From TrEMBL:
InterPro entries: Cation_efflux, Cation_efflux_CTD, Cation_efflux_CTD_sf, Cation_efflux_TM, Cation_efflux_TMD_sf. This is Cation transporter. NCBIfam families: CDF. Belongs to the cation diffusion facilitator (CDF) transporter (TC 2.A.4) family. SLC30A subfamily. GO terms for molecular function: zinc ion transmembrane transporter activity. It is found in: Membrane. One of its GO terms (biological process) is intracellular zinc ion homeostasis. Keywords: Membrane, Transmembrane, Transmembrane helix, Transport, Zinc. The keyword Amino-acid biosynthesis does not apply. Residues 210-285 form the Cation efflux protein cytoplasmic domain. Pfam families: Cation_efflux, ZT_dimer. Residues 17-204 form the Cation efflux protein transmembrane domain.
């Protein structure tokens, strides 16, 4: 039986999440005082949303740290799925926050509110800069956790761009209805992407085959390795959306030599190279053996 393990850790991902957390939390505090100072309900509402984002970022940062721990007697595959748990929780929070914003936007469509335009422009510029920096730092991370957090920050950046546009327009003409209209458009865009991410996370939790992997093609290629009669118990699933696990039982004839088995194992691992496999188990069985998993 052949096993391979990879233990490359993404400490940079956790560092980016830490930076995003403190940037978001610091700006949220500034936002609350600023919203009270310029008497802007819109900014105070966004502060509430950003506070939820800060909690989500903190959770993502914490769970990302756990996910980088080595495997032990409690979690033999390691802790990578804690990152996936963070992605799932944050997606649910993002959907909840988006639905809240939709409700607020609809209310403001029915009853448009006036606001301090110059103050809104100033906060919008700061909001775009802070959230834009955090989103930029997370752009290259491919883990589900980091991608969901990036979606949080993208929502914030787009939201502040909308606030900036509304603030600038309002300096010239009084059109308070622009705020809820832009908020609805942006939030619906984010909501659609969040639902897709939730579906993807759900598939990972249910150990579905990763979207970018063709398991039928892999089975066909393994089947055509010289000396392999058949195969069964072929499974591939993802720990966290990045690192995958693969198992397969290959059946060979009873007269297959040890050297030939070594060659089959080598060919199998070569074939699987490039699939981001964290764990690989190739079991070689003789044709006359009984396998309860067939």
């Amino acid at each position: 039986m052949a096993h391979t393990h990879s233990h490359e850790h993404t400490h940079g991902s956790r560092g980016d999440l830490k930076l995003a957390f403190f940037l978001n939390l610091g700006f949220t505090i500034l936002e609350i005082f600023g919203g009270l100072f310029i008497n802007s309900i819109a900014i105070l509402s966004d502060a509430l949303h950003d506070l939820g984002d800060s909690l989500s970022l903190g959770l993502a940062w914490y769970l990302q740290g756990i996910s980088e721990k080595q495997s032990d007697h409690r979690y033999s595959y390691g802790y990578r799925r804690f990152s996936l748990l963070g992605a799932f929780i944050n997606t649910v929070v993002l959907i909840g926050g988006s639905l809240f914003i939709v409700r607020e936007a609809i209310q403001r469509l029915l009853e448009p509110e006036t606001f301090n335009s110059p103050g809104m422009v100033v906060f919008a510029v700061i909001g775009v800069a802070v959230n834009g920096l955090a989103a930029y730092r997370l752009r290259s991370n491919t883990s589900s956790n980091a991608q969901v957090v990036g979606l949080h920050l993208l929502e914030d950046v787009l939201g502040w761009v909308a606030v900036l546009v509304v603030g600038l327009v309002s300096l010239v003409v009084d059109l308070p209805i622009l705020d809820p209209i832009l908020s609805l458009l942006i939030t619906v865009f984010i909501l659609v992407n969040a639902v897709r991410r939730l579906i993807d996370s759900g598939k990972l939790f249910l150990q579905g085959v990763p979207e970018d992997i063709d398991i039928d093609k892999i089975q066909s290629q393994l089947q055509h390795i010289e000396g392999v009669i058949s195969l069964h118990h072929t499974h591939i699933w993802s720990l966290d959306g990045e690192h995958n696990v693969f198992t397969a039982h290959l059946v060979v004839s009873d007269d297959t030599s040890a050297e030939e088995i070594k060659h089959i194992r080598h060919e199998s691992l070569q074939l699987l190279d490039g699939l981001n496999l964290e764990h690989v188990t190739i079991a070689i069985e003789y044709e006359s053996e009984e396998c309860g998993m067939r």
